[in-house]
From TrEMBL:
<keyword id="KW-0969">Cilium</keyword>
<dbReference type="Pfam" id="PF08666">
    <property type="entry name" value="SAF"/>
</dbReference>
<feature type="transmembrane region" description="Helical">
    <location>
        <begin position="42"/>
        <end position="62"/>
    </location>
</feature>
<keyword id="KW-0282">Flagellum</keyword>
<dbReference type="InterPro" id="IPR013974">
    <property type="entry name" value="SAF"/>
</dbReference>
<keyword id="KW-0812">Transmembrane</keyword>
<protein>
    <submittedName>
        <fullName>Chaperone for flagella basal body P-ring formation</fullName>
    </submittedName>
</protein>
<keyword id="KW-0966">Cell projection</keyword>
<keyword id="KW-1133">Transmembrane helix</keyword>
<feature type="region of interest" description="Disordered">
    <location>
        <begin position="1"/>
        <end position="34"/>
    </location>
</feature>
<keyword id="KW-0472">Membrane</keyword>
<feature type="domain" description="SAF">
    <location>
        <begin position="69"/>
        <end position="132"/>
    </location>
</feature>
Amino acid sequence: MALSVLTKRNGKEAASEAVPPAGGPAPHETAATSPRLRRRPLLLVVGVALLVMGAMAGVWLWSAASTSVEVVVVRADVQRGAIIPASALGRVRVTVDPSVQTVPGDQMASMVGRSAAVDLSAGALLTPSQVTDLVQPAEGMSMVGIPVAPGLMPAEPLRAGDQVRLVQTPGPSGEVSDKNPSPAVITATVVRVTPGETQTVVDVLVTQDKSAELAARAATGKVAVVLDSRER
């Protein structure tokens, strides 16, 4: 009798432990939802961080767009002293430090037809100091084109502004006149270089009193170009 009563009590206690209290979660549900509850704060932090990063990116884009300006850019190489054509210039929007001098985009038309004060490289922003209104040749100077064969000029490419000496070479037989054993030499400044199929034409500036003599010597095709030091 006592044994049966004890068995009934144990059965009731086991049943009471197995049945969850009213309104409470089942044991397996509590175990299943606990990790999910622990992950929610982490997801919240990640979401807030993404929102902050998105806001910062938006502010940066707005700031960059509001501070960018339209300036003139060089689209094609232009040699020093050459006239700047419209095809060599373009417009681009960039963010430029205020200390950097540039040419505003609406002034591009006024740059066309002027002379390049220095060599202009494609892709560079144009600055006011790179453009000049000086006309070449200046007063008292003359420009002469010299056709030069490959063997009569340096392999080093000539550039506008180079100081050169133009030397009269010997005749077809290699003779040098006894009356004038020293070759004639004329100093000049390179303006531009135009390569050709068999010869390269070098435009040079010389003083006006030397222009006729140089033109006559250049017509013989016997003028060599000597490049002097570029150190200034």
